[in-house]
Amino acid sequence: MQLIKNHINGLAPLLFGRLCKSVKNMSLHNSILTGCLVITLTSVLGGQGKNRSVVLPETAAQQIARLCSREGPPKFDGAWMPTDDDIRKMESQLSRISRLRSKGGIEGARIERPEGYYRQYVGIVIANRKFIYINAFCDDKPPSNWQDSIVDVCDGGCSWGVVYDIEKVAFSDLEMNGIA
């Protein structure tokens, strides 16, 4: 019996040491997994905001001139391609859209949290001045072609449009789709 007791006493430090080493390895392993999870979630969630907006090519200006449920932008003379800097400056001011009241569709309505909508940007020229038209819509899953072509929601929906003046750094001409 004493022999077994001595043997167990001799093994205990060895087993305890291996157990501690395993726990340390598990902690390191868990820390690495946690770090990877945080990085993945940050890139996925952080990318969602970026994926809610797109600059459409100049050819999209033809489509916004003929929207079916609202007037769209004022009559314009041409189109241009906004730069990344133009878009950054405009997006930093998006919350200002909430101050406007709709002039068409649902008159007098306001847009809460405009950054939460999917937004399509089209550069337009009015009287030799550059503007950006924002075509916005809400959707849990936007149409597959929303990053290539104007989404024109007819007969209601939660869509709206607004004009951004890059010189005055101001939004105007908010229009919301009417109620179907």
General description of the model:
The protein is α+β, with helices and mostly antiparallel strands and 180 residues long. The chain folds into two domains: 51 residues; 124 residues, no CATH class. The protein has three helices and six strands. Strands 1, 2, 3, 4, 5 and 6 form a six-stranded mixed β-sheet that branches. A hairpin with a 2-residue loop joins strand 3 and strand 4. The chain starts with a helix and ends with a strand. About 9% of the residues have low confidence.
Number of helical elements: 3
Mean pLDDT: 80
Oligomer: single chain
Low-confidence stretches: 33-49
Give the H and E element order: HEHEHEEEE
What characteristic shape results from the CA principal axes?
globular
**Fraction of residues in H or I helices:** 25-40%
Cα end-to-end separation: 89 Å
Number of domains: 2
Radius of gyration: 28 Å
Could you describe the largest sheet, including whether it forms a barrel? 6 strands, mixed
Strand content: 15-25%
- Count the E strands: 6
SS content category: alpha+beta
Briefly characterize the structure.
The chain is α+β, with helices and mostly antiparallel strands and 180 residues long.
Please tag this protein with its features.
single chain; 180 residues; alpha+beta; 2 domains; 6-stranded mixed β-sheet; 21% strand
List the helices and strands and how they pair.
Elements: H1 2-50, E1 53-55, H2 61-64, E2 78-80, H3 84-91, E3 118-126, E4 129-137, E5 159-165, E6 170-176
Parallel strand pairs: 1-3
Antiparallel strand pairs: 2-3, 3-4, 4-5, 5-6
